[in-house]
Amino acid sequence: MTDTADKNFDANVDQKSKEAYFTAGQGQLIWTRFKKQRAAMIGALVLGMLIFSGLIAPFMTPYDPTIAGRDKAYLNGQPQVPKFWDENGFSARPFIYTYSRERSIKTNFRWITTIDRDARRYLTFLPKGDKYTFFGIKGETHLFGVDKGYVHLFGTDSTGKDIFSRTFYAINTSLAVGTIGVFIAFVMALMIGGVSGYYGGWVDSVLQMITDAVRTVPAIPLFMALAAFIPDTWSAEERFFFISMILGFIGWPTLARRVRTHLLTERNQEYVLAAQLCGASAGHVIRKHLLPSFTSYIIVDLIISFPYMVLSETALSFIGLGLKDPVNSLGVMLQNVTSADVLLNYQWYFIPVIFFITLVMAFVFVGDGLRDAADPYGDTKK
After folding, report:
1. Nearest to 81, CA basis, from 155, 6, 18
2. How far is residue 158 from each of residues 105, 221, 325, measured CA to CA in Å?
3. What is the pTM of this model?
């Protein structure tokens, strides 16, 4: 009797699961498939942590990442790793050692770091420090600091700026550039691809010629010409928005072609004809009926476009055509790792490279996971 009841219960559960699956919306189906992909879920977790840390960078980092927050006594300083114990005993509070630096004739006047292991400096939490503006709110409280002097978890650069602070500000800046670029590309792709796919004919031919012309423009020579055009008097903010807009204006053709292809196949469907017979305008049909029919694919394309925007900004800043100091971006920071001296003596300059690779890989895993989850035939490809 018990076995029969258990079988009936399992059958009811399976029936309800099937009903829930077949009655679920498109977003629910995508999320259900996405959760089954471990790599995509890990990538989403890492990506969320990086985005969140970039947003709260003013609070999470101890110092101003610009020249105003530099440590003049600790140039090209190695990372300072907090400890809880050493040969002098255990401490409930994390501490770092006191460092002193001097030049020596024995090392061709290079900086020599001397560590005083008996002089501990203890980390403090929520201390007052450099002032910042966070979403329009002025503050001076930071996540951590040290009771005396400075603490540099990732070391310092040649000017004494804290690499830890610069790294998380750079993540925020690169993501902001990518967001603006993707938004501009998204709007242009929907407009041009939507009009081209809906009307077809000579309108489609003209817009596709424009799309092909934009796709054939080589990016590097274009940015070299634009770099020569940008006046030296432009502020960091003006250069930031200019680079973001240019990345958006050259990044829309791929998405526009996908929108056009979908609309060409959907414009003769019965629900479109019904909307037209009811007197709906072309803009209303495209906006309310055609585009929502593949919203999930547009979202996937946007996610996949993000790493390419970040890569473009990083590459342009790396070769000196994009953002420059005092703006902190991943590309600007990667400019510092090009010399052999850094490779041989200051390996901590490569720490931002690790964050850059992690950010791009997280976007790639999330984008691949969303693309597979949005595939309506994904469950049948076994």
Report:
1. 155
2. 20, 31, 13
3. 0.80
For 330-374, write each residue's pLDDT tens digit: 888 887 787 778 888 888 999 998 998 899 899 889 888 887 887
Domain positions in the chain: 58-161, 166-380
Q: Which two structure tokens, joined as six digits, stand for 352?
A: 């931002």
Q: Are 355 and 339 in contact (CB under 8 A)?
A: no
Q: Name beta bridge partners: 101.
A: 113
Bridge partners, 139 (sequence order): 132
Can you tell me the distance from the alpha carbon of 62 to that of 145, in angstroms, rounded to the nearest whole number? Answer: 6
* Residue 92 vs residue 114, higher pLDDT: 92
Is residue 370 within 8 A of residue 301, CB to CB? The reply is no
Superfamily assignment of 166-380 in CATH? MetI-like (1.10.3720.10)
Q: Is 199 within 8 Å of 282 (Cβ atoms)? A: yes
| pLDDT tens column, 259-300 | 888 888 888 888 888 888 888 888 888 788 887 777 777 777
User: Could you give the CA distance from residue 318 to residue 328 in angstroms, rounded to a whole number?
Assistant: 12
Return the structure tokens found at 108: 């061709």
The whole-angstrom separation of Cα 94 and Cα 82 is 6
